[in-house]
Each structure stands twice: as structure tokens, then as C-alpha cells.
Write a structure and sequence with these properties.
By secondary structure, the protein is of the alpha/beta class. It contains seven helices and ten strands. β2, α2 and β3 form a beta-alpha-beta unit. The structure holds fructose -6-phosphate (F6R). This is Glucosamine-6-phosphate deaminase.
């Protein structure tokens, strides 16, 4: 693990966006697709804003990009403003030239019986396009990456999970109350994430400081699923000063 700490998250986000843009361009130059694993939430917003700016102002093309989002609430309509489907289109996909059929997001509209086959197909599709070249992550205060809550197995793949109380409480504000937050979600697994060739985790603000200390300096354990990242050989934690403030 490499830790890079910055004063300001906007500055750090621009550097992460630059790495993604360089990867997209180098893959395009050799005629290859660039497979990106993407996150939602507040953490990656400025990375997406910077990628949109580079598309508009610097001609960065996403025609060779294939994306797989980490997770989606269940049940959840795609048109719902709380959906991760909506979030991704609003912050990124509507503003770039990625072909619609190269965008993959777990489907919150599936029936219970459809979920397992969907998850197996999601894994197969990631493998079929050559695996994730780059995975962008945030971290939840439970230590989740994607929605892999405490107890998630090292070998887990894409699946339906039950959200922790703290995760739902943290989301309650944007859902106008805890009772409106879905109890379940579909998420890529720990193994899915760790199979990425490169991982960058974004952490901003004081309220992430404690879980980031446990993640980076604690013992590897399913109690804090993000600690599994310690076993990955090409992961960087990009933190602002407040998020890095508890690190020794
Ligand atoms: C979102 C995701 C989650 C978030 C995490 C942090 O796709 O997988 O793990 O990254 O809950 O959320 P924010 O960035 O809103 O603090």
C-alpha cells in the first residue's frame, strides 16, 4: 500500500483523474479497451468532474472505455435520483462519449430470483473483457469497500448483501430519512475488487480518519473488509489531511 496525503481533496482528485486519463490514452494507443471499476458517493465526484473537463477541453475520448460499477441499492429504480445508475449518468456518463453498451451497473430492478444469475454474469463479463485495469474506491465508516460490509469473505464475488445500520444511517440524509434507505444492495465482492490490476481508494474528511487508521494500520480481518487491500500489491490510498490525521 502507498499512502499519499494532500491538503485538498480537489487537488488530489485531479491527480487521480490524470492517472485514469493516461491509462485510457495508453490503452487506446495500443488498440485495447480500458476496463474501469467505478464507485459512487461523495468521494469520487471531483474525479468525475475532472474527467468530464478533460473530455470537453482536452479531447479525452472514452470510446475504448468499458465500465463496471461497484454496487447498486436493491430494490431501486434506475430513474430514481437516489440510484447509483442516476448518479453515474448525472456525474459522468451523460457528459462523455462512452458507448451506452459499454456501461455496466448492477441492476436494482431485478426480482429476487434474477439476482444470482445476474451476479454470475457480471463476474463473467468482467473476466471476458480482460479484468479490471483500474478500480476506484471510496470507504464507508463500517470499513466497507463497494458494499462489502463487515463479515464479507476474502473470496466473495458479486452478490446481494444486507447493508449495515451505520451505512444506512449515513445515507439517511440523502434519502430523507432512514426508513427510505433500502436494506439491501448488489455489490461486487472483495475478490472482484482485489482482482483489479490497480486500485485507488479516495478518503476525504475527518469522519473517515478512524476507519482509515484501522484499514491501513490494523490487522487484516473481515471485521474491517477494507483491510483486505493490504494484500493487494498495487493499491494507493489518496487522502486529504483530515482523513490522514489519525495515521501514525
Ligand atoms: C459506492 C460505494 C461505497 C462508498 C462509501 C463511501 O459505490 O461502493 O463503498 O464508496 O460508502 O461513500 P462516500 O464517498 O459518500 O463517503
Amino acid at each position: 500500500i502507498h499512502n499519499i496525503s494532500f491538503g485538498q481533496s480537489t487537488e488530489a482528485s485531479a491527480i487521480v483523474a490524470r492517472e485514469i486519463a493516461d491509462l485510457i490514452r495508453s490503452k487506446a494507443a495500443s488498440g485495447k479497451p480500458c476496463v474501469l471499476g467505478l464507485a459512487t458517493g461523495s468521494s469520487p465526484i471531483n474525479v468525475y468532474a475532472e474527467l468530464v473537463r478533460m473530455h470537453r477541453e482536452e479531447g479525452l475520448s472514452f470510446k475504448n472505455v468499458i465500465t463496471f460499477n461497484l454496487d447498486e441499492y436493491w430494490p431501486m429504480e434506475k430513474s430514481d435520483v437516489q440510484s447509483y445508475h442516476y448518479f453515474m449518468h448525472e456525474h459522468l456518463f451523460n457528459h462523455i462519449d462512452i458507448p451506452a453498451d459499454q456501461v455496466n451497473i448492477p441492476d436494482g430492478t431485478l426480482s429476487q430470483e434474477e439476482i444470482k444469475p445476474f451476479c454470475i454474469a457480471y463476474e463473467a463479463k468482467i473476466k471476458a473483457v480482460g479484468g479490471l485495469d483500474f478500480q476506484l474506491l471510496g470507504i464507508g465508516r463500517t470499513g466497507h469497500i463497494g458494499f462489502n460490509e463487515p463479515g464479507s469473505h476474502f473470496n466473495s464475488g458479486t452478490r446481494m448483501i444486507t447493508l449495515d445500520y451505520l451505512t444506512r444511517a449515513d445515507a439517511a440524509g440523502s434519502f430523507r430519512g432512514l426508513s427510505n434507505v433500502p436494506k439491501k444492495a448488489i455489490t461486487m465482492g472483495i475478490n472482484t475488487v482485489l482482482s483489479a490490476k490497480r486500485i485507488v481508494l479516495l478518503g476525504w474528511g475527518q469522519n473517515k480518519a478512524e476507519i482509515l487508521k484501522e484499514t491501513i494500520e490494523g490487522e487484516i480481518s473481515s471485521t474491517v473488509p477494507a483491510t483486505y487491500l493490504q494484500e493487494h500489491d498495487n493499491t494507493t490510498f489518496v487522502l486529504d489531511d483530515a482523513a490522514a490525521s489519525e495515521l501514525t
